[in-house]
Amino acid sequence: MSKIVMNHGAGGEIMQEFLSKHILSHFPKAGADVPLDAMDDSAVVDGIVFTIDGHTVDPLIFPGGDIGRISVSGTVNDISVMGAVPMAIACSVIMEEGLEIEIVDKIMESMGKTSRECGVPIVTGDTKVMGSGALDKMVITTSAIGRRSELLDNDLRIASEYRKVKDRWCTDSNLAPGDVIIASGTLGDHGVALLSFREGYGFESEIQSDVAPLNKMIAEGLRAGGIVSMKDPTRGGLANTLNEWCSKSHVEIEIEQTSVPLREGVVSACDLLGIDPLSIGNEGKAIIGCVPNMAEDVLKAIKNTPEGRNAAIIGTVKEGRERVIMRTEIGGRRILEPPSGDPVPRIC
Ligand code: MG
Question: What is the 214 CA–ligand 1 centroid distance (Å)?
Fold first, then answer.
């Protein structure tokens, strides 16, 4: 009898396959503007943008954040990257018997603080307790609804001045050859901060998690106009995001290795640990695809926000095979494979 392994939840190809075969296949097909089988950041049903995330990060509190901040940020970001405004959050908190109430208070305080920071209220929820040993301390599940951003119609109108735009939302399938890819900041910070803290490697003094709500940064990008696709590169990192875009938009993406923003500490930590910073999860970054004529304007708008100050143009969309090509520092070309799973388990 085959059993669940960690990679079934690790955000890479193994998880995608598992979801299609063992989860989506059992659910009835529902009519939606962005349906379940699009496997995008959120669904869109009758104009309502809707998403949900489970959070199992270990440890609950880590350098730069905690499970409460991730819960609010991750859900707000999944709504925002569709081109929507998050309106309200629901949360379910499941706790293990024996967990210190002081820790619960700390995490809930952080959820409240993040909710105030992004301006999205938590309006409904549920709590349960499981017996000691039946659950590892705490699991938080957050869901949110959002509405179409007032900025999105104008954003897509600007994009369609330059080329035909297929989708009405910033979906994974909306890219076309010529589009420019922007990363909103340094990649790999969250995964490396967590791994280092957990394993005691000591890099965490210089690398903190990037966990943050991005709705305000994304609004500024939409205001500039010309954005067609957005995604938060969580599990599986940039490599997973770009490969998903290639297969859903039927395009090739070419990335310039030297243009990808990476902290020095992340590069040296990844070298030492033998992991790829482009396959590791982020919790406060967005990858943005926009029409070429608007790329500089979008970049400038993003860079003007605190969350996007390290943003950079990292590549372009090409006609070609559904794959990601990375032009290396020394001028070579290699395929950036989709990760089979995130190299670091339980980081979100
Ligand atoms: Mg997402």
Answer: 12
Could you give the CA distance from residue 99 to residue 19 in angstroms, rounded to a whole number?
A: 32
As a whole number of Å, the end-to-end CA separation of the chain is 28
104: left (phi over 0), alpha (psi -120 to 50) or beta: alpha
232 C-alpha to center of ligand 1: Å? 5
C-alpha 131 – ligand 1 centre gap (Å): 31
Residue 302 bridge partners (DSSP): none
- Distance, CA 64 to ligand 1 centroid (Å)? 20
Give the model confidence (pLDDT) of 115-149 as tens digits.
999 999 999 999 999 999 999 999 999 999 999 99
* pLDDT value of residue 200: 86
Place of tokens 């372009």: 316
Confidence of residue 51 (pLDDT cuts 50, 70, 90): very high
pTM across the whole model: 0.96
Question: Shortest CA distance to 63 belongs to which of 340, 303, 256, 269?
Answer: 269
Query: How far is it, in rounded angstroms, from Cα 35 to Cα 248?
Result: 14
Give residue-wise pLDDT tens across range 154-178.
999 999 999 999 999 999 999 999 9
In the reported structure, the alpha carbon of residue 332 is separated from the centroid of ligand 1 by a whole-number distance in angstroms of 31
What are the structure tokens assigned to 242, written together?
């770009």
C-alpha 231 to ligand 1 mean position (Å): 6
Q: Which residues contact 247 (CB under 8 A, 6 or more apart)?
A: 322
